[in-house]
Design a protein that fits this description.
It is a single chain. About 35% of the residues lie in helices and about 25% in strands. With about 140 residues, it is an alpha/beta fold. The longest helix has 17 residues, at about 110-125. The chain is globular and about 40 Å long.
Length: about 140
Amino acid sequence: MPYYHSVVWIDHQKATAWQFTSTEEQSKVIHAHDQHLKVHSRKSTHGGHKTVADAKFFEEVAAALSGTHEVLIIGPAQTKHEFADYLRNKHPALGNGIVAVENADHPTDAEVLAYARRHFKALDRMFVPGGAPPA
């Protein structure tokens, strides 16, 4: 059953996607396909090295978000931004639903859900049903 809100914790090896309400949740863990392979990196424009994003991995994470309307993406390093760009380009409905892309090291599942619920509760309070601005 798809829920309105989702949160994804993602790094280059693994992603966990939750769809949830204030009282229920469902989650799925997705592992990158090349996580055990030695991947040659290419030189990036800023002088560092950057590995190529795993499109199959990103596609499986996107599938885990199917039916959701608002997505919070968190994680360490750059994979979260690459995934957000992937959603915007390949899955515009999900990409348009991204509410934030934020840093998060390696929290527990309970910490991720608690953070996401607080985040969406605060975000939901900023909007009045029907789109009317607050008085």
